[in-house]
Specification:
It contains 5 helices and 4 strands, in the order E-E-H-H-E-H-E-H-H. It has helices spanning about 25-35, 40, 60-75, 85-95, 95-100; strands at about 5-10, 15, 45-50, 75-80. Strands 1-2-3-4 form a 4-stranded mixed β-sheet, covered by helices on one side.
């Protein structure tokens, strides 16, 4: 089984690595909940580096949408970088690529 990782770098960048799939997304969601306090979503621009994500499916896309909506609801902003092409393609098919990637 592949291992997912979630880490907040010293510069505040949130690094996600490993698969973002039905099998792993709940563990990544829980790590994000524990690692990103409610105040960090407010008014701050968070950058999620997805360059280490190897595989992703629609559950991974749903997680990105949830993070985006949480930031928006709290008055913050979120940016994704290093997004795997397959995840961008799924976002395009679902019509959320503009919401997620501008």
């Amino acid at each position: 089984m592949a291992t997912e990782a979630f880490d907040i770098a010293g510069d505040g960048t949130v690094r996600v690595s490993g698969p973002l799939t039905f099998d792993t997304v709940e563990a990544v969601r829980a790590a994000a909940r524990a690692g990103i306090g409610p105040d960090r979503w407010r008014g701050e621009a968070l950058t999620f580096d997805l360059g280490g994500v190897g595989r992703a499916d629609s559950a991974g896309l749903a997680l990105l949408v949830a993070w985006q909506r949480t930031a928006h609801r709290e008055g913050g902003r979120i940016h994704f970088r290093g997004t795997p092409p397959a995840l961008r393609a799924i976002a395009g098919l679902c019509g959320v690529d503009g919401e997620l990637f501008g």
